[in-house]
Amino acid sequence: LGNGGFFCQSLALTRPEHFAAVASVAATMPDVVYHKRKPLAPVSVLFILGMKDPVVPFKGGVIDPGKLKKSRGVAVSASEAVNFWVQGNKCRSEFEEGLLPDLDPTDGTRVRWLHYKGCGGNSEAVLLAVKEGGHTWPGGRTDQSEKKYGRTCKDFDASREIWRFFSKHRLAGSR
Fold first, then answer.
1. What is the largest CA-CA distance in the chain?
2. Using CA atoms, how far apart are residues 76 and 49, in angstroms rounded to an integer?
3. I need a labelling partner for 96 at 20 to 30 A (CA). Which of 60, 67, 87, 118 fits?
4. pLDDT by residue for the chain (175 residues), tens digit each?
5. What gap in Å lies between CA 26 and CA 51, rounded to an integer?
6. Is residue 14 within a helix (H) or strand (E), and if so which, with residue range?
7. What residues are paired with 127 via a beta bridge?
């Protein structure tokens, strides 16, 4: 969540031979990485992002340091982060999109998905954008402060979705 999403992308960029796929929850991409790095090889990427994330803004901007009062830098927008991987993975420009079923209308969220296929190395780029969602783990616990972190989507389970995504991808030469 957040820093972990930034870190897994950094690993995919610098060590693509070790990763067939990565998932980034509540983290777009640091501005400094976006401008200074390019993928060395295709790696499938799944983004799960809240569109009202108060910590890592969906539209990009300063990462809220919270109580640390120390700058965490700037994040690019969700569209820039996805396009970074679409271009780096040499995906076709066409994509599929849709809405996930609203399984829990009481959570106040909806999930729009974008799926880029036809990428180099059989990779793909996927975005699950949670409308009204915050800096939270979809399907996870909701005992954290909604006022501080935003709404938690209950329309899907991020852990299961990530596992499903990972299970479709294998490194070349692995069984």
1. 47
2. 13
3. 60
4. 678 889 999 999 999 999 999 999 999 999 999 999 999 999 999 999 999 999 999 999 999 867 556 667 899 999 999 999 999 999 998 999 999 999 999 999 999 999 999 999 999 999 999 999 999 999 998 766 888 899 999 999 999 999 999 999 988 766 5
5. 9
6. helix 3-14
7. 47, 114
